Predict the 3D structure of the following.
Amino acid sequence: MWLDAGKSDPFVPGVTALTSALKTAGSNLTDKSNWRGGHTEDYWNGHWRDYLAFYSKALAKC
């Protein structure tokens, strides 16, 4: 699972809580919540390559 939020994202507290709970439960998690930006189109568009690389690698293992 991949979770991310920009430093200015209003959902950071929820993402942080979910990340902590998942890590405690032993989930295989990639946490990228230290990037600059907020919950905006520019943020998401700036990270498509990262998302696609992560999921293509994960799907190749299926």
